[in-house]
Amino acid sequence: xxxxxxxxxxxxxxxxxxxxxxxxxxxxxxxxxxxxxxxxxxxxxxxxxxxxxxxxxxxxxxxxxxxxxxxxxxxxxxxxxxxxxxxxxxxxxxxxxxxxxxxxxxxxxxxxxxxxxxxxxxxxxxxxxxxxxxxxxxxxxxxxxxxxxxxxxxxxxxxxxxxxxxxxxxxxxxxxxxxxxxxxxxxxxxxxxxxxxxxxxxxxxxxxxxxxxxxxxxxxxxxxxxxxxxxxxxxxxxxxxxxxxxxxxxxxxxxxxxxxxxxxxxxxxxxxxxxxxxxxxxxxxxxxxxxx
Length: 292
Description:
By secondary structure, the protein is mainly alpha-helical. Among the domains are: about 120 residues, Orthogonal Bundle (Cytochrome Bc1 Complex, Chain D, domain 2); about 70 residues, Cytochrome Bc1 Complex, Chain D, domain 2 (Orthogonal Bundle), CATH 1.10.760. It is about 45% helix and about 5% strand. The chain contains eleven helices and two strands; from the N terminus they run E-E-H-H-H-H-H-H-H-H-H-H-H. A two-stranded antiparallel ribbon has the order 1-2. Helix 4 packs across helix 11, helix 7 packs across helix 8 and helix 7 crosses helix 10. The chain is elongated and about 115 Å long. It starts with 16 loop residues before the first strand and ends in a 6-residue tail after the last helix. It is found in: Cell inner membrane. Belongs to the CcoP / FixP family. Pathway: Energy metabolism; oxidative phosphorylation. Keywords: Cell inner membrane, Cell membrane, Electron transport, Heme, Hydrogen ion transport, Ion transport, Iron, Membrane, Metal-binding, Oxidoreductase, Repeat, Respiratory chain, Transmembrane, Transmembrane helix, Transport.
């Protein structure tokens, strides 16, 4: 059949029309660029080749495996197993070595630092901060104030069993609620609080009997915090000589802690993390510089 369509040139664009028209709109005969068509055809060819070489088509209970037999899931599992095997080798060495030996062996130390850093970010940073600088109620691990000691062994024990946790071997040290339980009167709480504040360079109240506060301190607090307010690590009692306190540094904060103390809880990690990870955490935390 002869083509009866007469070529018409659009007067605005100067392009030939195809003869198709919808509601006065005429279709222009603008073919796709050759480079685009060639790219499209190449994609079709590549897709056909991919279907043959790699897994692609789903079946009823499986899928086509492809000529190459490639499987990213299998490769990922193999890479994971290889990583676990490599980690296990070092983990076994970490478990067998003492904390001192780990800190002296450059290869073990490097592994422990990397492993400990990852474990710290996952388990410890929510409380102690990503930089281990702590927050109100959570100790700063970069300074030299350690309630239960900052040696490698001390840190390891704290990590294993926690503080006031539900583990039988947890470190336990609780301060009595002198005000709430009426062990001291409101006036006596104020006196001993002002006495402690005066030793920690915290502003005190006018007219408070500091001598009476000292007597109250000696009778009620010195057994745990020491005669000179130096603290006793064996019972987890902090030094009161500087206002580096967990629950605030003002006189009101000191009063509140004496009246009804807050006793924080650290979980025991012995049943949550493996032995190698706990040792790695110990070395990592000790490396912050605040350890002893």
